[in-house]
Input
Amino acid sequence: MKPATKFKELVAVFEQLEATASNLKIMDLLADFFSHITPEEARLTAYLLRGKVAPDYEGLELGLAKKLVMRSLAQAWGTPLKEVENRFQKTGDLGDVAARIAPQREGGELSIQEVFAELQTIARASGARSQEVKIQILAALLSRCSPQEAKYVTRIVLGTLRLGVAEMTFLYGLSKALTGTKEKKAILENAFNVLSDLGEVAYQAVKKGVEALQEVQPVIGIPIRMMLAQRVKDLEEVKKHLPGQVIVEYKYDGERIQAHISKQGEITLYSRRHEKITHQFPDIVAALGRALQGKEAIIEGEVVAIDPQIGKLQNFQILMTRRRKHGVEEYVRKVPVKYFIFDILYFEGKSLLKTPLSQRKEVLTRHFPDSDGLTLAKYIMTGDVEEMEGFFAEAIEQGGEGVVLKDVTSIYEAGTRGWKWIKFKKDYRRELADTFDLVVVGGIYGTGRRAGTYGSLLVAAFNPETNKYYSFTKVGAGFTDQELARLPDRLAKYNLPEKYRLVETQIEADVWFEPALVMEITGAELTISPVHTVAKEELKKGGLALRFPRFLRWRDDKSPEQATTVQEIYELYTSIRR
DNA sequence: TGTGCCTGCCC
DNA sequence: ATTCTGC
DNA sequence: GCAGAATGGGCAGGCACA
Output
């Protein structure tokens, strides 16, 4: 019987990982650690690495993030909350804050199991005063830690270990530890893709060896990690990756659902991240029950909200009102949905993961005739770019997001974002995307690798009638590291002690700016916002905002008065509204 | 009982 | 979701 | 090109608190 591994030992590995950039070195460090821990400790380490205490499909959450963790830090060492906040603002990492304010002490009394058990208790706390309980438990745990231990406990809870190690690297390290080479990671990855439980894979691998995981098969009731698509800027580019015949399929703007139907007719629905969402869609469950009639299957598709009057596809925002636990029946009537099935991974006792897509599609067409609430996703088969363009235009016209192009010969590559599936949306192509020239009015401090600069900027449109600026979105994507590093200097001269009086927004920025700088921004589409204020008066139900915003470039040639106007955005909204 | 903050999870 | 970056 | 780590809008649910 091995002695329980100390949390301190894991922390020592973390320290080393944090200091190394080389992937190979990282794998060696992990491998070294894995080779002297028990199967159960390997399981727990896997969960801790992801900032979780269970696989996703068990739905057990810590329910404690930045704000409550800050309160825990304050409580653990009697530091004023204000000071914790200030330090966080400066360093951008609560783990580092914890390490700084924790008093020097040896540590080493905690084992991995004990730390895990405490976090599990936090996760299980619920009901009145449970927030206080969670904070208390974490604070007590932290107070038993050395500064280094406290740093990683904090980061684990926040799910931001920032070590350059996530699931794949973990599996490489495990492979190396157990087989002496990283090459067997493929076996582990395959097992992970089918079991969707990194901890379970780690446990079994350490216990029975990597080879024992060779033939892991899908199980009804355990979600399979979903295959994802790469993206291209243009349909021409598809030819580079998929030269032959491809399936061109509507890309629906809804929620991905993997449905498991057992022989006994038990049905479970899983979201893309393996949350059980069966209770949200009794209508889909009923439709699947009727369609399958005792056959077992795992199928995949997209649920989309449908306009009850005319049957047209509705936008994502409307579907989101169905992500609920109360009043489900009412919303089944109010927001009807349709399940657009596009794949089948298991049927009648057989895994179809290795069956070519063309055959999986045949199974679908043979066994899933359209019915109330169920339809097969619309697609064509072609190798001709012109035809793809036409179908893409049709998909957009019908209310789709774009198209997904799929290699007809490809197997289902669970969990990977490979080139066998390629997505193409309108906003990926510069000429088709809407762009906006917006005024920078606020900044939000960055965290982690963006510590010391801004993580995002609050930008606004101009209204010449009121002479005011109306917030439209925050942008944090699209900046290079170099650009990010320049931001504080570039913006410093416009710094204000408080929000500029002519800026309208309900967002709280860390730093406010005088409207001066203009930047070009693109995004996918307009949404109705509870916090942004563009065209808020005209719309009544909220302001307009931008989904998936990203920075393109500065427009130093433009003054803030020459920025995109509120009126222009509102017109865009009314013109494309469906 | 109503409201607002916080969190987790969809995209 | 999108984007950037080091390996 | 992979894997990881930054970042967005916005919804419902749970809890704290007035």
